[in-house]
Design a protein that fits this description.
Elements lengths: L1 H10 L1 H38 L15 H10 L10
């Protein structure tokens, strides 16, 4: 069965290349549709949330690395949640 498929591909390589190219292009289009839909949905959600009135806005200018938090807790005698157990 595998030898028949291999002979068929080698015999009509141009047809195989065209088929392979078509599958790759179709897969790219379907992936692009999914990414585009996600991007559009995120933009619509962000636009709607910007119109919601809020009382307090909380933000942070930096991120905390988990290794930094773990070493900070161990220096102050606290157990981190990852080492509990």
């Amino acid at each position: 069965m595998l030898s028949y498929a291999l002979k068929r591909v080698l015999r009509s390589f141009g047809l195989f290349a065209a088929l392979l190219l078509g599958i790759v292009v179709a897969s790219s289009f379907f992936a692009g549709i999914n990414i585009g839909a996600d991007t559009t949905a995120k933009a619509a959600l962000t636009q709607q949330l910007n119109n919601v009135p809020v009382d307090i806005v909380i933000g942070s200018s930096s991120t905390l690395n988990s290794d930094v938090a773990r070493s900070h807790c161990s220096r102050h005698g606290k157990r981190s949640s990852s080492s509990a157990g």
